[in-house]
UniProtKB/TrEMBL annotation:
Catalytic activity, EC: 2.1.1.-
Coiled coil: none
SUPFAM superfamilies: S-adenosyl-L-methionine-dependent methyltransferases
Entry's Gene Ontology BP terms: methylation
Keyword Aminoacyl-tRNA synthetase set for record: no
PANTHER family listed in its UniProt record: 2-METHOXY-6-POLYPRENYL-1,4-BENZOQUINOL METHYLASE, MITOCHONDRIAL, METHYLTRANSFERASE
Keyword Methyltransferase: yes
GO terms, molecular function: methyltransferase activity
Pfam families the UniProt entry points to: Ubie_methyltran
Official protein name in the record: Class I SAM-dependent methyltransferase
Keywords, comma-separated and alphabetical: Methyltransferase, Transferase
Native organism: Parasedimentitalea psychrophila
Length: 271
């Protein structure tokens, strides 16, 4: 699988991801997942494909400072940002560079495994879910979210249209990958085959907001795997690209602020 289909951002883009996308997109989803997991103090938590670690960092507040909280990702740049943010926030979290298909953790060593907007990027989804099941205790829960299809998600739909036109198919494919696991039947079968029970899959719509729509679309474009290609465009072309992206939001943009639906399947399953 090509690197950009696994959401591999270059150095610098991890910092922009944390600064620009995490507050608008990933904190609201992390809250949603953590509420469903009903963590209690002392539980051991893994944030798989943690990126800059927002789920682990927020989970740490719920399980307390003495609990084991770990974040794992294959991208060293993402982990560097995760490490510095957790240090800044005074949280003790282990950050581990690892592939979800081969996690360096003992059997039955976690009470909860989270994977926020990660499963769609794994080339071998079943192996990853089997790994999540292996490292969970009996009764442990796996809580994940994956974006639904493009027609539900104007943020990605508009981005694909614009990237195809201005940068090329490869750049657009990196965004297509975000919405590539949208069939709840396929997701259910993967969890069942990995050995999970009590599998529930719910379509959840969050309204995501930013008070400065233009600034947000600029930052959104610069926080994705297409960031380098966009920054190499002539300034005037870049401004046109951003205006046309903003226009794709239609009535979700009021001339200043953006408020748009972001729709994912949220899965809760047990061992
Ligand atoms: C869209 S980001 C989501 C990050 C994070 N969960 C969040 O909520 O901000 C997808 C992440 O999956 C990671 N990833 C992709 N394939 C992976 C793999 N095989 N093993 C571990 N991490 C992987 C990427 O490096 C990236 O950090």
């Amino acid at each position: 699988m090509e690197a950009n289909l696994r959401w591999q951002v270059s150095w610098g883009a991890a910092e922009r991801y944390e600064e620009n996308l995490v507050p608008v997109i990933f904190i609201p989803w992390a809250q949603e997942l953590l509420n469903r997991a009903e963590l209690v103090a002392g539980e051991a938590v893994l944030d798989a494909a943690c990126g800059t670690g927002i789920v682990a960092r927020m989970a740490s507040d719920r399980v307390g400072p003495d609990a084991k909280v770990v974040g794992a990702d294959i991208n060293a740049g993402m982990l560097t940002v995760a490490k510095s943010k957790s240090k800044e926030e005074g949280k003790v979290i282990d950050w581990v560079e690892a592939d979800v298909g081969n996690l360096p953790f003992d059997d039955a060593s976690f009470d909860a495994v989270f994977c926020q907007q990660g499963l769609q990027f794994f080339p071998d989804k079943l192996s990853a879910l089997k790994e999540f099941r292996r490292i969970l205790t009996v009764g442990g829960r796996c809580v994940i979210c994956v974006a639904r299809s493009l027609e539900h998600n104007p943020l990605m739909n508009g981005q694909i249209e614009i990237l195809t036109r201005y940068i090329g198919e490869d750049a657009a494919n990196a965004i297509r990958a975000v919405c590539s696991l949208s069939d709840s039947g396929v997701i259910n079968d993967l969890f069942a085959e990995a050995g999970f029970t009590e599998i529930s899959i719910e379509s959840v719509t969050l309204t995501l907001r930013h008070s400065d729509g233009r600034a947000f679309v600029a930052r959104n474009m610069s926080s994705t795997p297409a960031a380098d290609a966009i920054s190499n465009l002539p300034e005037e072309t870049r401004q046109n690209l951003l205006q046309e992206y903003l226009d794709t939001f239609g009535s979700y943009y009021d001339g200043h602020a953006l408020a748009f639906p972001h729709v994912s399947h949220v899965v809760h399953a047990r061992v």
